[in-house]
Each structure stands twice: as C-alpha cells, then as structure tokens.
Fold:
Amino acid sequence: MIDLNALPHRKEGEQTVYLLRRHWIVPLKIAGIFLLGLTLLVGGYLLSANEFPGLYTHPLGQPVMALVGSFILLALWLIVMQEFVDYYLDTWIVTNERVIDIAQKGLFKRTSAELHLENIVDVTSEVKGMLPTFLNYGDLMIQTAGEKVRFRFEQIPRPEEVRQTVLKLVDEDRHRHESQTH
Amino acid sequence: MNALPLAILLLPFGLFLVIFFCFLGFNIYHLRVYGVQSFLTQSIITFFLVGTVVVLGAAWLMLGGSNWSHQIELEEITKPFTAKKIFTPL
Structure:
C-alpha cells in the first residue's frame, strides 16, 4: 500500500499537501448504474413472471431464467467493482516538493509519473458544464517548459483552489532553491 | 437418445464464475497493493468482499430452485411455456 508519510524517494521535510481523486459524483454515478441495473433485473423478472407465468414452471425455462438472472447480477457487480477500483486508484498527490500522477487503466495497465515543482511553468484550471459548475469540480492542467500539457488532473473537486495552492507551492519551492544556492 | 442433462447449462456459467473470481482477485490485489494506506481502503476491500458474498448467495438461491439432475427431452424445449392465448379462434 502507498504510505503518504513514506513516499518513494521522499526528500527531507517533504509533506503531502493534497491527495486528490476525481469528484464524488463519479462513484455516485457508478452506484446509480448498479441500482438501475438491479431495478431493470427485478423489473424484468416481475414483468416476465406476469406476462409469461408458465416460464418459471417450465422444466427448461426456470433454470435458464435463473442462470440468466445470476449471470446479469454477477456481471453487474463485477462492472461496479471494476469501475470503482479504476476510480479509487487514479490518484494525484501534491507535496511541497513534487506532483505525483498515478493512473489505473483496467486490470493490467498502471502508470505512475512525477514532476518536480521547479519544472512547472503554468497551471490551468477548467470547470466546464452545468453540473461541474454547481458542484465545483473540473480539470487541472499542469504544464512544463514543453508545449504539451504534462499532467491533467481530471474531474477533481475545487480545481481553482488546488491551482492557487500549487502555484503557491511552486513559488515557495523556487524561493527555497534560490536561498539554497546563494 | 434425445435427452440432455440440464446440468450441462452450468458449464458456461462455471466458466463465467472462473472469470468472475479472476477479476475479483485482481481488483482486491490492486486495492491492497496500490491503494493508499488508510481505513477507507480497508473498508472498501471489506465492502467488496461482503458484497461479493451477498451477490454469490443470491445467485446460489436463484440456481438452487432448479432440478439440475433433470433430463431434458428435446420435445420439451419446443413445448410452449405460455398458457396465454394471444389470438382467439375464429
């Protein structure tokens, strides 16, 4: 497990400022999909039992329906678990020294990258859409000297506040490095 | 000769269960290894394990109601299962 107090290559005095994940609306949507699927499953059972009463007494119909129901239920649970683990393991850690981006893509792809604060030249926040505006979540783009955006924090809560903090940390880091060289 | 054991239908379901347990194992492994060390991560692992037991229990109950040793005749498959008459005879 990742211990926030003992991050790999931790520098002396390094402190975790943020541990970020996507906004809570994301797991809420996953739970919604599960509940919708469960409702459709129960609804489908009630409807078919009402429309075709013989189906659940038929020597072949009953076991087939039981198998189909079990399959849908287990598949639904598996999708929910998979989606949630994907959400939960996508994390962004901001410390007073660096930014760490950990991304889980499916079962067999995991990327981990870090960026030292001294290399950051621009931080942009973006809140787009009605729901993100109401719930205050959006993306944060961190750019280095290159043309491409280096890190993108997706659907994080309070992106503007995080942007201000990251910029403050970059500033403090620059001052610290300058005072060390003089 | 024209009869099949009903339990044959459990074979593809068994294969699906193997895949289900593989995914479950990988997900729990990922949470344990790559999750942030916290009470929340432990709670999530527990929640998923308990949820899996509940879902498997529900599947067991659904499947338990069938007589899997029954031999299914091919004529039985084609026998209509609905007693509803959609069209009244002229």
